[in-house]
Amino acid sequence: MALFKGRTQDVPFLPASFWKSNTVIVGRVLRLFTTEVGTAYVVRLASPVELDGKQVSLVALGALKGFEMALVAAGLDRLCSGDVVGLKCIGSTPSSKGSPRIDFEIEVTREPSESSPEITDDDIPF
């Protein structure tokens, strides 16, 4: 018999406050899920990041308009499970919503097969 346990806190969202100019993450999309504001992604990072004083390598990504806009600019409407995504914050733009939009550069590698090999240095775009 298998037992699976987890906590919401085990997969924290990367909030807008995390993203500073030139912040880069690279990771593999493990799954997608729907939130009130759109699609979000669980990503296993190639290198952990510090979030709230803790090193984390499993994060949730989404709910940022700049991220969605970068996907569209790359010719994608969403990420897929197994994609390797490189995301770099390239600054911010004032918005009428009260907080600035975080701007991103994105690069997505999608394997043609069902396999999801480990992330290698060749997958890291920046």
Q: How does this model look, in words?
A:
This protein is mainly beta and 126 residues long. It has a single domain, classed as Beta Barrel (OB fold (Dihydrolipoamide Acetyltransferase, E2P)). The protein has 1 helix and 5 strands. The chain has a 5-stranded antiparallel beta sheet with strand order 3-2-1-4-5. It is globular, with a radius of gyration of 15 Å. The relative contact order is 0.22. The mean pLDDT is 90.
Report the uncertain regions: none
Rough outline: globular
Question: What is CATH's topology name?
Answer: OB fold (Dihydrolipoamide Acetyltransferase, E2P)
Strand content: 35-45%
Q: What's the helical proportion of residues?
A: under 10%
Note the run of SSEs as H and E.
Answer: EEEHEE
